[in-house]
């Protein structure tokens, strides 16, 4: 069994064939990249063959295109397939730290699951710094990830839309089973080991089989929202969209003044609610009565009434 990193290096050509299985133009249209002018910057993280970036250029978009991936083999394949932007062969955080004023940054193909909690938390902060005001960040996750925190991480994986994929290219048929097997490493932290089985069959019927092990960190929507909030990014649900087998969620960067306003408003509400919780029952009753609210249990809006009464 190979480590998954070998799929992106020694077997990069194999991965490039598997990954060329979606409507990249549709996804870019949903991200509204084609509406941006030539002064705008588009960044594709964990780019691999950089199909999104290459499609942008093919469709005639003349803005600044940057692809980032740590694999030199992937950079070579991307350029072989027509990529003509700026390909930074580097760790995502390191490369993105050199970029400012990006209008759109995206992480496609569920790549976020391949990095751990601490890395993702830091990455969200670097993304926020790299975006221009009102810039947008898109991240693709499994539809099954848009769940509550109590959802089981191990189950009937064969029912996932992406479980079995088959691609036919130049007389070669490639079947990919992802996951082929699963093993829970840490249920509390949602960490799994998934094996990936890839079978290549040529016209003569000869088969080659490859199995890779993938350590995956599954993130719920709640967890990603928390990372975004800490990085001062806000959800942009109007820009969310489904793909053939996944779901892109969007976050926007507000101007500093708007972000500060929202941040301190939330902080104030949490503090006032905490003050309310720690006060005596008699004090709570008086505050509720004076606020004019007919409530049995206080909630966030009540803190604003409390604030006005203090």
From TrEMBL:
<protein>
    <recommendedName>
        <fullName>Methyltransferase domain-containing protein</fullName>
    </recommendedName>
</protein>
<dbReference type="InterPro" id="IPR029063">
    <property type="entry name" value="SAM-dependent_MTases_sf"/>
</dbReference>
